[in-house]
Amino acid sequence: MVVAERRKFLRRDQVPGESTTDYVVQLKKLSLHCSYGDKLDENLRDRFISGLRDEPTALKLMEKVGEQDNLSFNKAVEFALARESTAESTKAMRGAGDTTSAAVSTNVNTLKRSQRKQPRSRKQCYRCGRNHPPEDCWFKSTECRRCRKIGHIEIMCRSEEPKAENKKRCQYGKKKNYQRKSGKRNPKSHQRR
């Protein structure tokens, strides 16, 4: 059945992952029982070009056929193999360390989108009350004036009352007037004049 064999031949396209060489071998096998005679080369060339998965190569080959009608099947295969080889070596070089600008920009855009999706919700720092992580706080090694514990400042202190021993030292908001020489407090300077 020549018609059935030709149908198989005419419907054969290059499948994903199939090399150009393997595709050529399969086309030649299918063409054996098609009885094309002296039109075999032309039919192989046309089927080869029409079934190529690499669209730019197929378009270039169609241009070449339009320019020179005598483009043989073997010349078309050589051209496609050369382009495939070039593409593979370029891909291997890029995979070895170079990245394309398109790949880099895709990664950058992906990163920007992922950053956008995560809202910047910073909690209030329990050490100072500002919006930053507590582990980054400047006051993590500071002594509280109220409870004398290290790790927070007075405005964020959770202690109920200052310790009895600290009450004498903790005079919030009051100015202490000292005499310069003796270091004792001058009670008269506290009065209004």
TrEMBL record:
Q: Where is the composition biased (Basic residues)?
A: 113-125, 169-193
Q: What is the lineage of its organism?
A: Eukaryota, Metazoa, Echinodermata, Eleutherozoa, Echinozoa
Ranges of compositional bias, category Polar residues: 98-111
Name of the protein: Uncharacterized protein
Residue ranges for the region (Disordered) are 90-126, 162-193
The record lists the organism as Holothuria leucospilota
Which PANTHER family does this one have? Answer: ANK_REP_REGION DOMAIN-CONTAINING PROTEIN-RELATED, CCHC-TYPE DOMAIN-CONTAINING PROTEIN
